[in-house]
Amino acid sequence: MNTSVNDPARSRTAGQSRTQGRVLALQRLYSFEQNHYIDDGLLAPDETLEGVEPEAIVFATELFDGFRKERVAVDAAVDARLENWTIQRLAVLDRAILRLGAFEIMYCPGTPPKVAINEYIEIAKGFGSEAKTTKLVNGVLDRLARDSHATGMKPAKELAKEPTKEPAKDPLQDSSKDSAKDPAKESPPKPAEPASAPPRTRGF
Question: How far does CA 97 lie from the centroid of its chain?
Answer without folding.
Answer: 13
